[in-house]
Structure formats: C-alpha cells, structure tokens
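Predict the 3D structure for this chain.
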Amino acid sequence: MSNHKYFGTDGIRGKVGDFPITPDFILKLGWAAGKVLARRHGSRKIIIGKDTRISGYMLESALEAGLAAAGLSAALTGPMPTPAIAYLTRTFRAEAGIVISASHNPFYDNGIKFFSIDGTKLPDEVEEAIEVELAKPLTCVESIKLGKASRIVDAAGRYIEFCKRTFPGDLSLKGLKIIVDCANGATYHIAPSVLRELGAPVVTLGCQPDGMNINQECGATDVRLLQSRVLVEKADIGIAYDGDGDRVIMVDHLGHKVDGDQILYVIVREKLRRGQLFGGVVGTLMSNMGLELALQQLGVPFVRALVGDRYVLEKMQEKDWRIGAENSGHVILLDKTTTGDGIIAGLQVLSAMVSNDMNLHELCNGMRLLPQIIVNVHSTGLHDPLEAVTVKQACSNVEQQLSGRGRVLLRKSGTEPLIRIMVEGEDTIKVSWLAHYIANAVKAAV
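Done. Predicted structure below.
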C-alpha cells in the first residue's frame, strides 16, 4: 500500500468545498496530471467523464482548465459510468481517462479517479509523480500550445454496444422481466437501453437524477425499494447499480438480496460449466466464508486480497487469474474488460439464468452465506484505535468465542472516516452481539 498524500485506494475523494475537493485544488490537479501525462506518450487527449452529482459541472470545468494550461485537450463525455471511461480511454487511445465521481457516497461528496491508456487504474509511480507536481507553482504553456475541449457525442452508444457484445450472441433476454435501479447515477441512460436492446421488458427505478438524489435510498447501497418492486411487479430479477456503475447488487424473484460474493459464485460456476474458467478466483478480506467453502467444493482456488478493487486487480494480475470480486458488488472480469463493471457483471448472471433456464435463487443454491455483521464506528482522531490494547483484547476474546468457526476483521475504510468491524460466524444473534462488543471497545478507544 502506498503512502500518498492525496490519492487513496480509489483516487482522491472528499466532501465538496472541503480540501481537496475544491475548485482551486482540482484546477491544480488537472494541471499536475497534465504535466505528468504529457511526458509519457504522444497523445495529448484526456477523456473526462462524471456521474450525476451537481458538483460535477464545477469540477469538470476546473479539470479542463488545468489540463489546458498544461497543454492537454479534454474530451468530455457527460454523465457516464466509471467503467465506460476505462473503455473509452482504450478505444480512443487517449493519454488517460478521468472520472469525476464519489461512487456510492452521498451527493455532497465527490472525487477524481484516473485510468491509464490501457483502461486500468494509474500505477502508484504515476500518482506519486502527480503529487510531486502538485507541490510546484502552477505555470501555463504558451498560447499556441494550450489544450482545447471537445465533446464525445456518441459515447453512450459506443459503450452500450460494448456491453451488449459481452452477452452471448445466441441468447436473448426475451420474456425476462427485469427491474433495474440506476441509483439516480451514471448508468441511468445506459443500463435500461442495454437490457431492452437484448430483448428484456424493463421497469426502471432511480433513473431521474437531479444532481442531489444519487444513491439516496436507492441503488446498490440500498436495495429495499428494489426488493419491494420486484415482488409487486412479479419480476424475474432486480438489478441495482451504484452511483458510478462499477458495482452491482441483485435481487431474486423472491425478493432476496444477492450480493457480490453470490454474483461471483454464479459467474464462476457458469464458466466452469462452459469450460471457460482458467485459474482461480480473487476475493477480499471481507468476502464471506461461505463463498470460500462453496468454491472449495467446486475445486476452484481462492485467495483474499486487501479491500479495494485495485488490490483485487493487483492480486489477479499477480496470479494471472481472470475473475475477482468484492462482496460490495465490484466484480472484475478480465476476459471481458479491464475494470469492475456493474452492467457487464450483471449480464453474465443473466446469461447463466437464460442458458440454464434457472432463476437466480436456484443459481445461488450451491452457496450458503454465513451470517456476517459489519458495524461502523466514526473515527477522525489522530491516534489509531486499532492499536489500542483494549481493542486487541476484545478481538482476542471474540476469536476464542468463535473457536475457529468464524472470522473477525477490523479495518479502516479507504473512502470514509470509519473503522469497519466485521464478525462472521454460524449464528446471527451471537455474531451481532460479538460485533457490537468489539465496536464498543473501539468507541472507547476513539
């Protein structure tokens, strides 16, 4: 893990108006990124996409100005899913792609993340080089070398076709009633079209973004509305994306939530059936023990990476494996694309349903999720509560209680000022009590 000043596990993120998500800093970031990226290859174009947050307009303008001052041109896509920017960066052979998004966070947060020319996250050394430039005074190239701005008018259509190509050509979604919840985010004008063009009757939720309702009681982080609509509409399946479209969570026809671990299991089992699984599967420290046991039964190797899709991807590349996921719904399928993509992961589950003539509930049957309770404790203090003797003792007590039939994990969130306490075991009530027992120790230490 790197010790960057600004870049976290998922780019630079924070509350809009508070440093570093301020117009002046983002202007400087655009310039610093432009200075570093302009050195690397011949192309002088950067693709900029965003989700539907109201602050996107302001930050887009600031980035565009900073890049222009460094002599790079911006090609704007308007609201587009994060994985779409990774794809467009590759197809346009752009120097880099920039996404303005805070993913699953509330509308008043925003962030900046970068993709390389290959459609993958920037290497650590490039982020470090950008941070070095940020420490220098901003300069401007001479007028003849200034960058320009243009708009990519067919961005949505290109990405819709790309997504459809990942679905088997001999299959159709005809007759499969789908409720799709776009979290009032970046997939609102993409996902319904992909599903309809593949033949599905689609009912939409969370497709009226107003700049402030992104992720608000909808989408992958809150599927209650989707669960009730699936039951009311007697739909075959519900699909929820987060604000920037790199996560997917599903709901089966009975209204049960299907998370990233279960989605991963369904995709892996289908690949095994088709003889298309090469190597093993990467999860994270948060992946449910039930996934590990189910993959063991299938004879599929499984390893855990640190939490964060960049660490999943690093582990996949290290092992030369093609499939990895987080239980939050980031599913990375390197045989299809270069980054986590909610729409594409969802399509692989739909193809498994159609080709096996089975519903999602049946496809998930081979895996039993163990009760897993996560308690978040707010922590903005200077000292680290995870190092407190009382917290370590509480964890040790809980591990003794679980006696090898469960797991305990404490970690700092990479995107919010939170300590996440996860306890997993066989009994929900016991697991919940143990998680709150540790949480109380953390609160006391904070």
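DSSP finds 14 helices and 18 strands in the chain.
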